[in-house]
Specification:
68% helix; 91 residues
Amino acid sequence: MTRLFRQPGPRSGASRPTLAGAVLASVLLVELASCVTQGFLSPLLKALTDLLRVTAAELNWIGVVSLVAGAVFTPVLSRLGNHHGHPASSG
């Protein structure tokens, strides 16, 4: 019986992608999305007031909702990460 997936031996020098690389890539993607969102929101506020026919004060609720969502979901996601992720190393 032939194997479809060959496992590299300990001396072959071939390395497989690790979970750390996937985590780093996902964190980088989230940070880039956050940067784009925060960087483009301020210049778009004037265009959004005209497009949505709302006042600037009403449109400021977008910023308020963003900040509240961050304040609410940061501890929730941290707790989920602690519960389902790897235990913290002490050392």
